[in-house]
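Late entry, flavin-adenine dinucleotide complex.
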Amino acid sequence: MKKKVITIIGGGTGGYVAAIRAAQLGAEVNLIEKEKVGGTCLNWGCIPTKALVYSAKTYSDIQNARRFGIEVEDASVNMKRVIKNKDGIVKQLVGGVEFLLKKHKVNVIQGTADIVDKKTVSVDTKKGEEVLKTDYIIIATGSNVKKVPIKGIDTEGILTSKEALDLKDLPESLAIIGGGVIGMEFAFIYSAFGVDIKVVEYLDDILPGVDKEITNELRSIAKRERIKITTGAQVTEIKKDGNFSVKYIKKDEEDILDVEKVLIATGREPSFGGLSLDKLGIETEGNAIKVDDTLQTNLDNIYAVGDVTGKILLAHVASHQGIIAVENIMGQEKKVDYDVVPSAIFTKPEIATVGLTEEEAVEKDIDFTVGKFPFRANGKIKTMNKRKGFIKIIIDKNTHQILGSSIIGVHATDLIHELTLAIKNELKIEDVIETIHAHPTTSEVIHEAALDTIGGALHYVRIN
Ligand SMILES: Cc1cc2nc3c(=O)[nH]c(=O)nc-3n(C[C@H](O)[C@H](O)[C@H](O)COP(=O)(O)OP(=O)(O)OC[C@H]3O[C@@H](n4cnc5c(N)ncnc54)[C@H](O)[C@@H]3O)c2cc1C
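Prediction complete; structure with ligand written out below:
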């Protein structure tokens, strides 16, 4: 039987995972990438930021080593090595993806693609134009930095997340415009390296969508780290005259920050990668490509996955969508479920969430109850001296079904998956309570918070 030909435009997390899955299921696969396979996540996003997070963590661990009986003198940050380490990790991972694509016999083409018609894709390569005939097309062109209309936003020297990953010399001060995930991750990274950080956020709180109690905890931790956060403030102008001056208005009062560098972290928006979508009649919704829950566009042989669909702009959503799209093309009937998507934020400490927040449970008029447990009451966490943070679990008061969890604290981004599995499988809190958790581990905070939902944790007494 003739193999199905699938052509994927964009080799980021959505595109390259779709390519591997398609090859596994027996398709003939073309993958077109104009820059580097791995896309934003591997080259300029998830992985390089986490390399910097780990360097920052190492530096603060060394500064706090004395408590553990380890004497270290004169620790300092060498940004050139920090960046070199980050580049090395990215190179290895990109090489790994290239190897996997080769092993799966994916035809990787370096160049910029456009869709000529439903069954034809053209690629502008260094050697000239290449034309591919195809049965299916998957658009995985990702997203770009969203720039908000601020006077002077294009002033030379203003950083986006891409340049902020390559600062070989530390500035004395940095203003971060935007207190979302990317902005707050950079705030904690550069603060740990000793940079004076000022975050300006337009909304009334940082990290939109995250449980209020968690953002309050992060804000008080940030204050102790001397990260200055101003919310409900609109930046109106950025000027450069030696240093940068950042003008903002809060409650009708104008203020100006004087800083050495400015980072724009006002979010990201879907990018169509220059594809002729209008010509083909591919429907869009707002600034994203419109897809159904099988990732099919309004054209039956054209699919879209990842940030370009504007659903949830996260790498693990992009790769999951890539798999679902390919499985549908290959005859399986699968749908994406966006209700149970964990999110991981690499501030210090980490934050992770899944399912409903307390605010959402109230909004939905659910009869719920909350179990909580502070990290400082966990034995293993005490040995690490990472006492900050807590976990919340939200359950339906009547059925005891687990509805959501928010965690702030060490290893939060790993811990969230036990609860993700529980919510996905509609488990009740008793299923977690009756599961033996190894001692001493950070996962015991989940067990304790679960116990707290229906009668009280064993190693903590609430005083309220
Ligand atoms: C600083 C930062 C940190 C982040 N951290 C995290 C994190 O910790 N966890 C997380 O889940 N997510 C994180 N993200 C988000 C994550 O990177 C994205 O959700 C993910 O990369 C989306 O994958 P994608 O395949 O849709 O798009 P991308 O990874 O952006 O890939 C799209 C690819 O398409 C290519 N392309 C575009 N147009 C064309 C064309 N016409 N022809 C050929 N190629 C084309 C591009 O060159 C690009 O490589 C972060 C993002 C940033 C910016």
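The pocket of flavin-adenine dinucleotide is lined by residues 9-15, 32-35, 39-41, 44-46, 49, 112-113, 140-143, 161, 182, 273-275, 306-308, 313-316, 318 (CB under 6 Å). Will revisit in the morning.
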